[in-house]
Amino acid sequence: MNPDSPPAPAPETKNQRLFFALWPALELSRELYSVAGRVLEGDARRVPPENIHLTLAFLGSVKASFRQCAEQIAAAIRTGSFTLTLEQIGCWPKPGIVWVGPRNTPEPLSRLVQELNAGLAACGYVPEERSYAAHLTVARKLRRCNKNLPIDPLMWEVRRFCLVQSHTHAEGARYEIVSAWELNSSEP
Question: Number of C-alpha atoms within 13 angstroms, CB side, residue 48?
């Protein structure tokens, strides 16, 4: 190799399975885990507290170049911090998911998702066609589903969002926060 020649570009490493999410503090995650335990009748598997999150945009299996583009988009987001009130627990019978979420998605959360989706389009991202439903999955593999139930409200001060990598193992998924961005403390 000639020491005067520029280095060869680094080869793309293997794809990473990524998503953007809001990640609650462990204290709130433990409370959500407890809420799920109080309403389930033993026929579902609770999500471990350290894995509970609110997905903003699921990117899927992507190359390093896509991740770099997505991180640049995330760094340009100017949405403000907000309070998210988690006040109901419900289920989706077809996938067997139990979730906790707000009655209505607050405007700052909708704006964050919209800004992410619009920016990620420049990276080649195509968002899901279905409407965004703000929720945190707290259990899986539910066999029978009760209607949406109110719970004592849990207040979550959302101050940042994250890019998360999903690692799949025989015992289940493990999530790793690979980047995080602070939300503005006040709107401009």
Answer: 7
